[in-house]
Amino acid sequence: MSNLLQEVIHHATMKSFKTRLKVNNQQKTILAKHAGVARHAYNWGLATCITEYEETKKRPSAITLHKGLVAEVKSINPWYYEVSKCAPQQALRDLERAFKNFLTIPKCGFPKFKKKGRKDSFYSNERWYIYKLQEGQNS
User: Which of 53, 89, 102, 123 is 20 to 30 A from 60, comparing alpha carbons?
Assistant: First the structure.
C-alpha cells in the first residue's frame, strides 16, 4: 500500500449528526414500540445466554439467539410483528458484542438487563420517512 493511501486512510474522519426530532403522539408510539421490542429481545437473549452458559458452558451466537427468538418468542408475542425486523436483530447483535467485550476487555462488566425508560433505543437500517403534513391535510 502506498504511503499516500495509508495517510489518507489514517486521516479519514467519520462524521455523525445528532438530531432532535419533534414527533407527534402517533410517531412517539411507533418509536416506543421499536425500543420496547429491542429491549425485550435483548433481555430475552441475555436470560437465554445465562441459562445456556450454566447448562453447557457455551454462549449462543446472535444468529442462534435470533432463530430461537423467532421460534419461541414471536409466536406468543404478536406485537413483535408491528415493528421493523431490524430492532430485535440488532439488539441481539449488541448483546453478542457486550459479551465479547466482557470476556476480552478487563474494565467491561457483565451485560445488564435493560430497563424501560433508561436510554431507550433501537437500530434500524431501513429508510424512515419523516414528513410534516400541511395544515388541512389528513394522514
Answer: 123
Instruction: Report the C-alpha gap between 91 and 77 in whole angstroms.
Output: 17
Other CB atoms within 10 A of residue 126 CB? 8
- Label residues 71-98 b or e (16+ Cβ within 10 Å = b): eebbeeeeebeebbeebbbbbbbbbbeb
pLDDT digit string, tens, across residues 12-66: 566 666 777 788 888 888 888 888 999 999 999 999 998 988 898 888 888 998 8
Given 3-state DSSP classes, what are the helix, strand and coil percentages for the chain, each rounded to the nearest 5?
A: 55, 0, 45
Place of cell 402517533: 26
Ramachandran angles phi, psi of 39, nearest 5°: -65, -45
